[in-house]
């Protein structure tokens, strides 16, 4: 199928039946199914027991360990990838070749090269299937309201920003074999944890131009970092700091933007409501203006459901979703630049990482003390 103009529910297949599928994707899909937006018709996992239990629990008739067979036999409209990032490229390309739209959990891919390969697998037409990324924090009513005010210039110029994802993960978390490894997780907290807040920061602030990063492995015995920081310059001239950590017992997610006429801040952990946003006007701003700024309207929490509603509407309208194509790539490019800057001790500019650059194909870039150790014959230890 190359387009979808029918009001019928999108026939949806879930790939990967682990924790994120159960906790976030299935509740969103079932809620939207009740609204006529989606219908879950298939589940796929390499673990036959897992996919069987998942399909039984959620009354999904078609279950299999064979993705290719499912795509051929079921022909879903939408494929939801809830698998580890190392297999996202292969699975997304297969779904696109089969004529399905793709909604892929973060991190999108382990490298810009992988992301660009997925984009190349799209057919390119306005209503043709494409791949999009789960960046749900863009889609709550709070972000929508603040984005509108920033875009129309209500707060004046953005000047200074801070983006913080300071979480805590213990050794048991990293006992899962694919975590903390470049080849399977793609990166550490900059990639796997802070990516949501980073994405929201970039969405609100606009294009970035330069990043200067630092990274360290302070506690965990992993290949990747467990903490990173960055200084960022945006095309507008605004400056920002970004902090990502899995070493922080007092967990918080926060974005603060100081503009000419107001400070805007959101503080939460894994998702926000309108009440988590605060707007502080500068001296001299009329109270009625500040009151209008603080009217966020109907509360729609940031969530998989909020984004899924927007994605289904975009698919039916034949338009690009905000986290597809360049809209999703900008965040992965920023994270790649953060790693390159941290490992080379040099600033990195937007648009400078492409084919031929070692960081284009691997986020560690082969950097000493960061690239995985290898045996003499070249295989990973």
Automatic annotation (TrEMBL):
InterPro entries: Gfo/Idh/MocA-like_OxRdtase_N (IPR000683), Gfo/Idh/MocA_Oxidoreductase (IPR052515), GFO_IDH_MocA-like_dom (IPR055170), NAD(P)-bd_dom_sf (IPR036291). Residues 144-264 form the GFO/IDH/MocA-like oxidoreductase domain. Gene3D superfamilies: Dihydrodipicolinate Reductase, domain 2 (3.30.360.10), NAD(P)-binding Rossmann-like Domain (3.40.50.720). Residues 10-123 form the Gfo/Idh/MocA-like oxidoreductase N-terminal domain. This is Gfo/Idh/MocA family oxidoreductase. It comes from Streptomyces kunmingensis.
